[in-house]
Amino acid sequence: MKRFAAEYLYTLEEERPLRNAFVELDDNGTILGTGPCREGEELMRGALVPGFVNAHCHVELSYMKGLFRKGTGMAGFIDQINALRDTRSRDEKVRCLKEAMDLMWERGVSAMADISNCDDSFAVKAAHPMYTRTFLEVFGTEPEDCAGVMEGVTSLQEKAQGYGLDAAPTPHACYTMSPELLTAASAAGLKSGYLSFHSEETPEEEEMLKTGSGRMWENRRAAGMSVPPVTGKSSLLYFIDRLLKAAPAPLKEHILLVHEVCMDQEGIDAVKAVMEHPYIALCPLSNIYIHNALPPVPLMRRNGLSLCIGTDSLSSNEDLDIVKEIFCLQENFEGLSLGELLIWACRNGADFLGRKELGTLERGKRPGLVFIDHLGPSGSLSSASCSHRIV
């Protein structure tokens, strides 16, 4: 049996922490119990929390760290990623993504919802202690390519499953897919019970769908690609229209909407009307990196949406550090307690992935145990706060 005690213990069964409390685990990391410390018991100065869930990552892009210019907007970012993709050998890509996964694990990430466009990460994931659900993302702007794209991603899914990975197709975003492919990929993903979709990441995306203009529209046309239909509606509403062609409402699957920087009340109402289990993945540092914007977190909270926290990739972020993402949200939005933010970073992500053993420090669970140091005087994060895996 192992016993750890700290000034703050976040079981995350509720938002408020236990003060001066302990957690006991067996030798396999299963939680045996929690409670108040004995008088005089030595305490770790900081917070003990469950393992994190990185709700959105592209770990296979880790070889791109430090190569991108910041603040280019989405059109500029797309140009950079197209120019830099596949500029390293497979061995170097695998080395970089393994280093990234190892560092995330050491910092306390117990599970990850990861995007893959190829098989570079499969062997590393299969051998790693971190649980991953792999979303096999597809692209294709030309309607006649839909069948071929789906055939290719089905083969990739079979390869991932051969490694023992939970993996299924998922659509990327409205602007990289024909309407036919968006529906076909959504239908394939829904069969697995899980879907991830990049949604309303930038105002450029909204301008493209609503008015058929702007930098992203021009970017696509200049590249000779077909563009999505101009609907006069948000990209989220367009996605919902295509999603409902794949399956009727109400949708009972776990659907993760990633970014949602431009989400409004109309979009939230539409999501609630058709999805029984919607989740939002917040990636604030990536949003700032690309176009210096943040999602409407207060609006999302008022509407009771299930928020999760992701890091995105090292092409659009300087690090894959959940604590830095939490600190960014804490500093930019008033009224967020550390307990609420940890619920997003741990419990909600585990709920999305359907991993009942993760997310909270409840008896019988095995979520991992993480220590966060250098808290501020009120118990909130400071710029010096770091996380360290204990178990």
Quick description:
The chain has helices at residues 73-84, 90-106, 122-127, 146-162, 179-192, 203-211, 215-222, 235-243, 265-274, 284-291, 297-302, 322-332, 338-353, and strands at 2-9, 18-25, 31-36, 44-50, 52-57, 109-116, 131-138, 166-171, 194-199, 251-259, 275-282, 306-309, 369-372, 387-389. With 391 residues, it is α/β, with parallel strands linked by helices. The protein has a domain at 55-320: TIM Barrel (Alpha-Beta Barrel), CATH 3.20.20.
Q: What level of helicity do the residues show?
A: 25-40%
Described by the principal axes of the CA atoms, the overall outline is globular
Unreliable spans: none
As a percent range, the share of strand residues is: 15-25%
- CATH homologous superfamily descriptor of the domain at 55-320: Metal-dependent hydrolases
Number of strands: 14
Give the C-alpha Rg.
Answer: 21 Å
Strand order, main sheet: write it out.
Answer: 3-2-1-4-13-14
SSE order in H/E notation?
A: EEEEEHHEHEHEHEHHHEHEHHEHHEE
Return the CATH topology of the domain at 55-320. Answer: TIM Barrel
CATH structural architecture of the domain at 55-320: Alpha-Beta Barrel
What is the top-level CATH class of the domain at 55-320?
Alpha Beta
Structure description:
- There is one protein chain.
- The protein is α/β, with parallel strands linked by helices.
- It has a domain at 55-320: Metal-dependent hydrolases (TIM Barrel, Alpha-Beta Barrel), CATH 3.20.20.
- The protein is built from 13 helices and 14 strands.
- It has helices at 73-84, 90-106, 122-127, 146-162, 179-192, 203-211, 215-222, 235-243, 265-274, 284-291, 297-302, 322-332, 338-353; strands at residues 2-9, 18-25, 31-36, 44-50, 52-57, 109-116, 131-138, 166-171, 194-199, 251-259, 275-282, 306-309, 369-372, 387-389.
- The protein has a 6-stranded mixed β-sheet, with no helix packed on it. It has a 4-stranded parallel β-sheet with strand order 5-6-7-8. Strands 9-10-11-12 form a 4-stranded parallel β-sheet, sandwiched between helices.
- α4 links the parallel β7 (131-138) and β8.
- α4 packs parallel to α5 and α12 packs across α13 (338-353).
- The longest helix is centred in the first third of the chain and has 17 residues, at 90-106.
- The protein is globular.
